[in-house]
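User: What would this chain look like folded?
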Amino acid sequence: MHVRRSGSASIIALSLLVTACGSSGSSAAPSTGGAESAPPSSESAPPSSESAAPSESAGASTGTIDASGDLSAFGVSYDTGDTIAKERVDEFKEKYPNVNVKFSESGFDTQGFVTSLQSSSPPDVVRLERWRIGTYVASGVIDPLTDCITKAGVDMSNYRDSAVNSVTFDGQVYGLPEFYWVSNWLVDDDLFKQAGLDAASWDVGNWDQIKAANDALLSKTKTKVGIDPKISDNGDRFPMWVAAAGGKLISDDGKTAQLNSQEVIDALTFGKGLIDAHGGLTKFKDLIGQTGDFFGEENGFKNDLEGAFPMQQWYLNVLAGATPDTKFTVKPFMSKAGQPVTMAEGDALAITSASKNKDAACAFITTMTSTDAWVRAAKARAEEASTKGAIQTGTSTGNKAAEEEIFSSIVDTGDNQTFKAAVDAYFGTFDTAFEATPNRAAEDFRQAWIDGVNKALGGDDPKTAMDQANQVAQQALDAAP
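Assistant: Here's the prediction, encoded as structure tokens.
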């Protein structure tokens, strides 16, 4: 879920958050010593979920936590959750029967979270996209997890580095990574063949070949969309294109906006060219709306409605369930220099500063992200798939030990070579994936570059649009606490 918001709205929300934190009597300030963006799931992103418990396995909590009482989890679902959600929650309930959990049964939304913090019963735990977390670190409404990690005996090296780095500020971790959605190219084999192209040999690090494929698909096939770079509207794949050009949207320390760098302009100009080849942004959006039921049996791959686009790994489960006979190729997203630049995204579970039951909150978030809980949930999903004779493409968790077991012994694609190759291709990019650089103006910074990209796609000069976006973004960074 991506909330579109103006800078002024964010400032207002931030002031409310600070007020809410102040009324809680605690602070989370660090010490000195984030058509298919809303998948069919109760979770805040893809068709996966939540639930867990302390265990002796890698990536799990090994300490003993004396937890009981009431616990409120915002942005977390159980009754409306899928198997991955319910199994992990059931694991937690079994391990901590004296904790009574109340779930918001919703995804994360900024205004709802602000309102909940100001209530007489603020949430103890919040699930939110990792890229957002800096906004709430800056406003002091979530706690660093130093004590929780120590108490639960969590080995943070068992989580993927990029996921941990995205929730780390001044050396302190503020959220435990949950899910690990990587984006790579999905290519429609039939459409490429019709256009005289070979998906297997298509060099996605060569932008001339990407443009040529777009042109061939539009001129030689009846597809609605040739190449969708996934940079319009919420712009969610734009950082990958910038990385492919050799740049970043922000400095490594998260303090300096780089939205008007040459690499950003090059990426935007190229992506705009792909979209303009369809007749401009308005026409392109209309065509995207004609690419079928993204989550259903009449999706674009089945009906040859879209040539290629970068997409997160969880979409494989959608295709496996809806159209298992479709033919497509997964190609790692590559830089112009020929290096993988896959982008990872996902949620984090954090403890609010307003929590009245921090021990139970710690037990919950460490259990939910433990190896045992993830493996339990993955096995349950695999069993469901097996009873239906369906393909199981796995759940990517951000917990390396869990993923090793899931993808080595639980995933089952049967004799379907298309999905076997797809799963292998995605899993092969997990170790090299990057995540958004954490910063304390996270939501406003993201909105600044999204607005700049959309202005350029709508007709503004890319350099002018991103100069303006960079100014807005830097002001937000400078103003952040």
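Residues 21-181+347-413 form a domain with the D-Maltodextrin-Binding Protein; domain 2 fold (CATH 3.40.190.10). If you want, I can go into more detail on any region.
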